[in-house]
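Slide 14.
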Amino acid sequence: MTTQPIFIPVILGTPRQGRMSEPVAKFVVEQVAKRDGVETELIDIRNIPLPTSDEGESIKDPKFSETMMRADALIIVVPEYNHGYPGLLKHLLDTNLKEYIHKAVGICGVSAGPFGGTRVIQSLLPVMRELGLVNIFWDGNFSNVHNIFDQSGKLLDEAYIRRLDKFLQELVWMAKVLRYGRENIASE
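Slide 15: predicted structure.
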């Protein structure tokens, strides 16, 4: 098995101004970066030029595509908007397909209410499957997000460190297993 670090980028799934999912995404990146043998980076969809005049591979951003190809797993930090996910996130995800095959994904739902983005996570699960990603069975739920971080983005509730640790343990394990499979077992 390769000794190359596992690469897990974190996608911040909304371009909205004043987004409370941004401190969550930064917190997730910090926690991933602390793990031995794991590399990460933040991908902010706000910074990806994404035309809306076409779809799919014809509007693929080369840098995003290259990052997805290199990734062993993904973390998507996504706010719940009216029980769903942001359209721009779906638009971006749909620009790639082969880049995702047999890679792990973990979803962190963010909401201002008490359910921690549960509905957005449920909405995204069939999309992840259709893209060829393998969902882990832990979710990151950030409910009442205004109470978790202060105005500067500092974490106020230390319990989220332990919660995210379980999520990351499962994601890293799955990323290693799937990398082994991609590198050593022929797909028929």
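Speaker note: The beta strands are 6-7, 10-12, 38-39, 42-44, 73-79, 103-110, 133-135, 140-142.
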